[in-house]
Amino acid sequence: MGVTIRQIAQEAGVSRGTVDRVLNNRGRVRPEVDKKVREIARELGYRPNLLGRALGMSRNDIKIGVIIQASETSFIKAVLAGIQTAASEVENSGGTVLVEKIPGIDADKVLRAMERMREQGIHAIALMPVEDQRIREKVNQFVEEYQIPIVTFNGDLEAAKRLCFVGENAYLSGKTAAGLMGEFFRENGSTIAMISGFASNSSLSRRISGFREVIEQQYPKIHLLDTVYCQEDEEQAERLTEQILKEHPEAGGIYMTCFGENGVCRALKKQGKEQEIVLVASDLTGNNYELLEEGLINLIVGQEDVVQGYEPVMILYRLLFNGEKPKEEYQYTDIVIKTRYNV
Amino acid sequence: MGVTIRQIAQEAGVSRGTVDRVLNNRGRVRPEVDKKVREIARELGYRPNLLGRALGMSRNDIKIGVIIQASETSFIKAVLAGIQTAASEVENSGGTVLVEKIPGIDADKVLRAMERMREQGIHAIALMPVEDQRIREKVNQFVEEYQIPIVTFNGDLEAAKRLCFVGENAYLSGKTAAGLMGEFFRENGSTIAMISGFASNSSLSRRISGFREVIEQQYPKIHLLDTVYCQEDEEQAERLTEQILKEHPEAGGIYMTCFGENGVCRALKKQGKEQEIVLVASDLTGNNYELLEEGLINLIVGQEDVVQGYEPVMILYRLLFNGEKPKEEYQYTDIVIKTRYNV
DNA sequence: CTGAAAGCGCTTACAG
DNA sequence: CTGAAAGCGCTTACAG
Predict the structure, then answer these.
(1) Which of B258, B181, B167 is nearest to B221 (CA)?
(2) B59-167+305-333 homologous superfamily
(3) Among A50, A327, B198, B244, which is most buried by a count of CB atoms within 10 Å?
C-alpha cells in the first residue's frame, strides 16, 4: 500500500489535519511547517488515496446538473447513455447528477432549466446549448456571478465563458467524408451532391465546408453540385434526392450531413439506383446501421456519441472533486468511420 | 445520499456486520434474519457504496499480474498505456498491479513469468499469450489447481480455460479492409496484392481470409494475387513489393496485414508509384500516421490498442472486487478506420 | 449465528 | 496556526 497522510504526519511531528491543510492548500499553516510537510510528502512519494478522499468528501455532496435538448432523437439517446454511466460513477463517489431532458430545441426551456438547477443548489452544469444570445448571457452570468462552471457539449456556444467544449470537429468530419468519397471517384471523376439540414446550423455548415474544401483541392475530376437543405426531414430529403437524380443522371455520389437518410434511400430505391450511387451519411444514429448493412449507405462518418455524454460530466466532477482543470478548451471527440463490416 | 447498511441494520434491528454478511452472501446468518434484511434492502432500494466497500477492502490488497510480450514494439507500447491507466485506477482503490514486459515472443519467458507471479501471491493474471502447448497447460493449471483466473488479450489461446479474451476480431478487420479497397476499384476493377507477415500467425491469416472472402464475393472485377509473406521485415516487404510491381504493372492496390509499411512505401517511391497505388495498412502503429499524412498510405484499418491493455486488467479487478464475471467470452475491440483526415 | 469494535485514508468543523 | 475527534460507508477478525 502507498504512503498515507498518517505516515507523513508522524514523520513531520504534526497532526493529520495539518498535513491535509498543507497538501490541499487550505492555508492557515506556518510556513516552516508547510515546507517541512511538503518535503516529507515529496520524499516519501505521497500520492493521495482517492478512495479515502472521495469518502471523506462525500459529506459535501457534489451536485452536477446536465441539460440536453432534442432528447427524443436517437443520437441524443446515445449521448444520454454516456451521461448515465458518468452519473453512476459520480453517485458511487457520493455525488449527485440531475438531468433535464428537453424535447426538441428550445432556448426558453433551456433558460428555465438553468434557473431551476441553480435553485436546487447545483455546483456545475453540463449544457447542450443552442446559439442564442440570452443563453450566452445566462452562461456568462452563471460562471461569473454565481461561480457555477459550465461545460458545453455536442454544440458549442461561441465566445461564452464556458470552461470547455466537448464534441465533434465538424470541419474534420466533412473532410473525412470527402477523403473517402473522393477516392471512390478519383480516376473516373463524377458528380456529387451534398444534402444538409439547415443553412443556419453552424455544425452542419462546417461539415459542408470541410467536404467541399477537400474535394475541390484534391479531386479535380469531381464536380460538386450546390448544397441543398432538407430541414432534417425525410420527405424533403426524398424529394431533393429525386430532383438531383433527375437533373443530374450522371451523379455518382451523395453526401448527407444530417438526418434524413431514409428519404434519400427511398428515392434511390425508387429509381433503382441504390447500387450505383455511393451514399456517405453522417452520425451513427437512427436506422443508419441497418441501411449500412443493406448496402444502401456505403459509409457513415460519425461522432462518438457516448463520450459526448460521459466526458462533460466527468470533467466537471474532476473539477469539483480535485480542482483539476481540463487540459484543452476544445475536447474534440474521435471521428469514426463505419462500413458494413466494422459496425 | 443513498441508503446505507447502517439504515438497513437499524430498520432490521441487527448489526451492520450482519447486514454485510447477508448482502454479500458470506453465510452464517439465520434464514429469517437473512430474509428480513434482504427485504428491507430491496424496499429501501439499497445500492452499495463502492467507495466505502473499496476502502474497507483495501486491506485485502488485490494483486493483479500482467504479462506482455513484444514489449519493444510500438503497438504494445500503446497497449501498455492502457495497462497503466488501469493500474493506476486499481492502485487508487488500494490494489496492486505487477507488469512483466517480455521483449520479443518467448514462450519460455512467459512460463517463467507466470511462475514468478504465482510466487508473489498474485490473485489473477492478464496474459498476452502465444500458441504453445506448454502455455496452454500452465494456464489450465493456474485456473483449475491454483484458482488463479486468467484473461488473454491481444492474442487468444485456443481451447484454454481462460476467463475471456480481449482483442481484435481479425477476420472482420480483413473484411473491413476489403470493403474499402473494393469500393475504390468497383467500377474499373484492378489487380490487388496482399502482403502478410508469417503464414503461421493465425491472427494475420484471419485478416487475409476475411479480405479474400469479401473481395471474391463482392468485387468480381478485382483480381487477387497470391498472398506473400514478409516476415514482418521492412527489407523483405520492400523486395516483395518491387517484385509485385515488376510482375504486375497493372496492380492498383496493396493490402498489408502487418508491420513492414516502410519497406512497401520505399519500393513505391522508387518506382514513382506512390500516388497510383492504393495502400491499405493495418494497425495504428510505428510511423503509420506519418505515412498516412504524407499520402503514401491511403487507409489504415486498426484495432483499439489502449482498450486492449485497459480492459483485461479492469475485468480482473471487477472479478476480484465484486465477483462480477465478464458478460462475453470474446470481447472484441472496435475496428477503427483512419484516413489522413481523422487521425 | 450475531454484535461490538477497529480499521481503510481522507476531510471537516470545532476548540484553543 | 494547530490538534483531537468524529465522520464518510463499508469490511473484518474476534468474542461469545
Answers:
(1) B181
(2) Response regulator (3.40.50.2300)
(3) B244
